[in-house]
């Protein structure tokens, strides 16, 4: 560290979007490494609308690692944060900035502490995959700061150890999280199926039914489901493998009818698995169910799907329209049937 001790700060900033699973991840076969019981597929949203922005700073003057989320300091003592920090530090490379007189050797990164400031521009813990965007952004930005040379696939396996779905947020477009088979999780990583330019006709509208924190966290909900739901095992072993292949084909061919039917079916089965859990988990509410009914009746009346719906672990609806014209009609229907009062459709 060539510059005078404590007199320099090195910073990096990154932004990662959230992603919405169309074939759901629910259930881990290894809690510590966050290894899933099945493959999953997601679409990455436009980072200009739903994303996490993270700035990481490092300095010899920092006595400890610290983090702020949306302006409030949070603890970094949790195992998931520590896993991401440890894995990135392990892969850190030598860095030199001659103008600033900074030289950091590979072994120095283990001794240096970081300050992390992260901001989500959408509700946290409301079923909109805030942790996916957050951990993907954290890993990407730490890697940028520490001059890590690994590709996005390798970085995705690190982000996975923070939040499973985070591995999919390192890519744009359509992304598959391969569950992998190895016990150490080295083959459980994300691959891009198609980039963000592949299917430009699609328009995604998110109806924020409630921005409140969900009562059952995804982590505890998954654990309970794995322990108590016979339906989960059937889903993971029998349903999802063939559904993933069909979804890959639908994405490749831009086949909206197949895409919509698979997306809706998988969302409904995911919530059925939650209901099959003991005690049952209720992520959706009456407004969520009314949105499903609206979309189903509209699709049936048109004779072919116009809109796909999917709900993650929360009541908020992610609606995927086949084109802009359909999206405009969808928005009119939502505002007519669910006139917003304040910020939430449920109020």
TrEMBL record:
Keywords: ATP-binding, Lipid biosynthesis, Lipid metabolism, Lyase, Nucleotide-binding, Steroid biosynthesis, Steroid metabolism, Sterol biosynthesis, Sterol metabolism. GO terms for biological process: sterol biosynthetic process. The keyword ATP-binding applies. It comes from Urochloa decumbens. Its EC number is 4.1.1.33. Residues 204-343 form the Mvd1 C-terminal domain. GO terms for molecular function: ATP binding; diphosphomevalonate decarboxylase activity. This is Diphosphomevalonate decarboxylase. It comes from the Eukaryota. Belongs to the diphosphomevalonate decarboxylase family. It holds the Pfam family MVD-like_N.
